[in-house]
Design goal:
The structure is a single chain. The protein is of the alpha+beta class and 175 residues long. The chain is built from four helices and seven strands, in the order βββααβαβββα. It folds into two domains: 55 residues, no CATH class; 91 residues, Fumarylacetoacetate hydrolase, domain 2 (Alpha-Beta Complex). A three-stranded antiparallel sheet has the order 1-2-3, with no helix packed on it. A two-stranded antiparallel sheet has the order 4-5.
Length: 175
Amino acid sequence: MKLFRFGNAGAEKPGLIVDGVGRVDVSAFGEDYGEAFFGSDGPARLARFFADQPEKCPFVPADARIAPAIARPSKIVCVGLNYRDHAAETGAALPTEPVLFMKATSAITGPYDDLILPRGSQKTDWEVELGVVVGKAARYVEESRALEHVAGFVLLNDYSERSFQRERGGQFTKG
């Protein structure tokens, strides 16, 4: 199932990409793609809704703005230095434990939206990342059961201001 969101900033709607049909508006389903949706078997419920009531799902105009894929997630947890080549490129030693940091959920934009760079930004950098959407609460999950908690995946660009990270405090979150 391919989910997407569309519409003007602050008024985004949930959409569905259906093979052989195209992009459709599933607002009539009554839920956006947030924590409650993913934590309550939302994708399966949405699939049933669309199968039963496709007439309630109009086409999305081709010129509609593509919005962030998820409606304001509760948190974005990142793993720093998770690629050997990137660690070498930055001159950092390979970590023996995962380097975790957070990103502000307010920083999420749609794929074609303008980026708001921090004032004084001089070394903005970006990396393509794979985002894992955790669909239901997970604590002390055995590795063999980890994918039971994954609702899906999203491709994203992670932007950072490297001078803020390296030269003004030595922390990922600041950049």
